[in-house]
Amino acid sequence: MKKVFLLTMILLSFSVFAGIIYDFSEKAYIEETKHFKFVFEKELYSYYIELKELSELLYKDYSDFYDTDPGTITVYIFDDVDFVNSFAVPPLNVIRLYVNSPNAKMGLSNNVYDWINFVFSHELNHVFYGNALNQYVSWIPSEIIKKTLMMNWNPSYLHEGLSIYMESKYFKGRFQSDLFNMYLKAEILSPDYPRYSLGQDHIKISGHQQDLIICMELF
Questions:
Q1: Looking at residue 211, what is its pLDDT?
Q2: Which of 2, 49, 165, 208 is 20 to 30 A removed from 64 (C-alpha atoms)?
Q3: CB 205 within 8 A of CB 165
Q4: Residue 37 class from Cβ within 10 Å (0-12 exposed, 13-18 middle, 19+ buried)?
Q5: What residue ranges do the domains of the chain occupy?
Q6: What spatial distance separates the first Cα and last Cα of the chain, rounded to whole Å?
Q7: pLDDT > 90 fraction of the chain, expressed in percent and rounded
Q8: Is 148 exposed, middle or buried (0-12, 13-18, 19+ CB in 10 A)?
Q9: How far apart (Å, rounded) are the C-alpha atoms in residues 33 and 31?
Q10: CA 98 to CA 76: how far, in whole Å?
Q11: Kind of pairing, strands 29-32 and 73-78?
Q12: What are phi and psi of 173, to 5 degrees?
């Protein structure tokens, strides 16, 4: 029965992530640090320089916070879209950064002028939180399947709440925005709260994380 379950999860993992990681040009530059592999276009070399030292400092802090060591994380930095966004794929230890910075009026606080560092700190947290496994999946031999299961079991409001906490801690993120906190309080006081997928959370929450349990992505 376990073999059937594992095979199903392997197929599910490949189907979920197949279209997410792009096949970039062979002309892409690759630079590596102790814990990161940066893949970027030649014209975006300055972004790598900006993240080079910061990434290792954040890695150490996040590792201490979560008591986990994800290993090498691949960071793609490309300017191939017109929209503002970034994302992380925790099971694959991948971060995809878009270099377009948002307008401060979009609700991301007034500190988005430091966009690449701001968004990197947010997405890096998704990777670390996604690597925080527990005993319920310890019997599964595949690390990717373990992380995929945890990503689906952990509630989205914790993923986003903790990531917003980290961006706020280091780069004056949304928790330091009066507008965002107003939205957050209004949501909590709403009779429809919570309107987001709660799921199940089996991760042991430490003392300095407990106040973040109700936090969720509102933008």
A1: 39
A2: 49
A3: no
A4: middle
A5: 25-212
A6: 41
A7: 32
A8: buried
A9: 7
A10: 9
A11: unpaired
A12: -80, -155
